[in-house]
Every structure is written in C-alpha cells, then in structure tokens.
Amino acid sequence: MTTRTPVAESPLLSGPHRLKLATFGFNAQGGTTITSAEGPPDTDWDQQVRIAQLSEAAGIEAVLPGARWLGYGGRTNFQGRSYDTFAWAAAIAAVTTRCQVFATFHLPTAHPVRVAKTIATIDHVSGGRFGLNIVAGWNVDELSMFGLTQRDHDERYDFGDDYLAVLNQLLDHDGFFDHTGPYFELKRGYSEPKPLQSPRPVYMAAGLSPRGRRFAAQHADISFMAVQDVSKIAPAIAQTKQEARDFGRDLMVFVQTPIVCADTEKEAQELLGHYVDEMGDFEAARNMVSSLFGNTLDTTGAQRDVPVEEGVRAFLRLAVAGHGAAPLIGTPEQIVDALLVRAEAGIDGVTLSWLNYEEGLVQFQEKILPLLVQAGLRVDEDLPASSPEPVR
C-alpha cells in the first residue's frame, strides 16, 4: 500500500516563504509576450528543460503551463504551438526534483475518469509534486474543435462543481462508488492507484468573475488572478479569502507578474518599448482579448475619462506586454519594492514570466532573489549557485 501525504505538505503550499513563486506560461510559443522580438520561448524541448531547471535552481516553488489548442493569428500566431500540459507535466516532473509541477486543464475536454488516472500517474512520476490548474472553459473556437458548445458563463462553473464532485471521489474513494449529478452519472466509479497527495493534488483556479471567485473559494487551494492595478486588488483578495473561509477552507491568492528588469529604469522601459511598441503583435493581442470578452473590446479596454481608442490601446498594450497583466518594470530594487506592495495587499504568490525566460531566471536568482530575502519575502535556503546540467 502506497503511503499518501497530505496535500498541505506539497512543495507550493508548505514552503516557508512569505511570497510564493511560480514560473508561468513557457510551454507555449511566445510565453506571455505577444511580440516578434527575439527572446520568447518556443516548443523546443531542451529549452523547456532548461527553464524548468533554472526555476528550480532559483528556489521557485512551481512551474505552471498554460493550455492552448489554437493560436491567436496576427503575424506571430501567438501560442499557436504549445505542449499538452499533462504530458508536459509528466516529462518536466522527471527532470526536476523539488518544484510543484502543474498541468492546466479545460474541464469540458476530457471525462473525469480519464483525468483521474492521468493525475495519479503524474503524481507518482513526480513523487507527489503534481498540481492541477482548473479552467472552466472559455474559448469558443477551441471548444468547437472538440465538438462542444459553450455553456453560459455561470453554468460553466455549475458543470465544474459536478465535475470535481466526481473527480475528487475518483482520487480519494477506496473501492467503487456511484454518482448522480446534473452533468455526470457514474455506476461503479473506480480509479487506482490514488495520487500520492491526499485527498488530491494541489488545485489552482482562476477567479476573475464573482462566480469564478466562488468556484475557486469552494474547490481550489490557490486562486489565480491577473492584475492591472495592484492598488485596487486588496478588497477582491479579502473577499475571495472570506468566501473560502465561508466554505471552511483556506485559500492562497496568486497574481500573474511579468517582469522587465534592467540595471536602470530607463533601460527597462526601453526594453519594454522595443518588444511591445516596436515589435508587438497588436492584431494577435486584439484577437486574444476579443476571444475573452467577445465583441465588447471598446468598453472593456476603455478607462474612465480616457478616450475609447486610447483606452483600448492601453489595454492591448498590457496584453502584448504580459498576457493582460501589468508588468513590473525597473531595477532589481524597484521590482522587489513592487513585489512587497503585492504581498502587503494580501497576495500570497506570483506567477513570473519574462520576454526571455532563461536570461530572466538567471537575473532573478543573481540580482532579485537576495533582495527578496532582505525584504523578508523569501527565506534564504542556501540555494545552489547555478542550475544543474539538463537531464535527458
């Protein structure tokens, strides 16, 4: 009989650091920057291994992929190539030893019986380090490839409630069980082996809408948000954590955090201007935003008291610069100050990305991480000075 470990003891949830870290989005072509500038990752496996191992060498607790089935057109067809996140997670788990390795999964695209077996397999491969980033499913064009019709917004989460009711039993119930719900009916449901984590691996879910936040509060260990204005996020964080407490649960909140760092703020701003304003693929960015918000881009992108087109341009610029999240820009000291503001707003962790992940991770370990320790956001764990040779 395999000994199972409480999920609370997983690398991401149990670490000693005030601000948790995850490297985000490098499994897809372009990463999180919609640009034709040089630097973003592509579907090169040796590069994937290097990025994962550099992340682990820097003490980053998790690696988190994004799930994509179609690109966004434009001259770059941003994220038009990407690795399947379950297979990716199993392979990355085999070449790392400490970090939490996530897969991102759109619930409508596979039955929970299939997914339970996959989850348990990867959790065994990783030695109990697997995590699942749960997505209700939002991209109409992608879902249509599966022959699926998009549900109304809130119903997607109703479906998710029933999905997880089945999945969680498959991952933790000994023997057979029956389930009758609004979307799933199982007779003699069964799955073995169980994952090493008990009662299930770490769950993450994006919580942007009120219904999405409630779903994350009810089911997830981590709620994942994109932030455009950190000064306004504290109430949303407090509300999400209170909703989790109402369900008798604790919840961490992570935010997406692209980084643009240089020796001077001027150099960082010039780098951002190069890959966003000079080389940014604004057509692909518009396609991505439209797929998220339908045909409401003018009102979504506009800011109060700002002309619509100017507001749209600013919104699209965020999409190009960091997948919709405002990047942190400046010197290492300025980056740490900005991360401290996020922690003081109630944020428990950040998902990091860069134009060039390999260069960014080396810079992060050498110049930013020591300052994070000084600021009390990270604990000095006597990390290795450099990443190991890639394992193949």
Helix/strand layout:
Blueprint: E1 5-6, H1 11-14, E2 20-24, H2 45-57, E3 62-64, H3 85-94, E4 100-106, H4 112-126, E5 130-135, H5 140-145, H6 153-172, E6 177-180, E7 185-189, E8 197-198, E9 202-206, H7 210-219, E10 222-226, H8 234-246, E11 252-261, H9 265-278, H10 282-293, H11 297-301, H12 308-322, E12 328-330, H13 332-344, E13 349-353, H14 357-374
Parallel strand pairs: 1-8, 2-3, 2-13, 3-4, 4-5, 5-9, 9-10, 10-11, 11-12, 11-13
Antiparallel strand pairs: 6-7
Structure description:
The protein is α/β, with parallel strands linked by helices. It has a single domain (5-260, 325-374), classed as Luciferase-like domain (TIM Barrel), CATH 3.20.20. The protein is 43% helix and 16% strand. It contains 14 helices and 13 strands. It has helices at 11-14, 45-57, 85-94, 112-126, 140-145, 153-172, 210-219, 234-246, 265-278, 282-293, 297-301, 308-322, 332-344, 357-374; strands at residues 5-6, 20-24, 62-64, 100-106, 130-135, 177-180, 185-189, 197-198, 202-206, 222-226, 252-261, 328-330, 349-353. Strands 2-3-4-5-9-10-11-13 form an 8-stranded parallel beta barrel, surrounded by 8 helices. β2, α2 and β3 form a beta-alpha-beta unit. α6 (153-172) runs parallel beside α7 and α10 (282-293) crosses α12. The longest helix has 20 residues, at 153-172. The protein is globular, with a radius of gyration of 20 Å. The chain starts with a strand and ends in an 18-residue tail after the last helix.
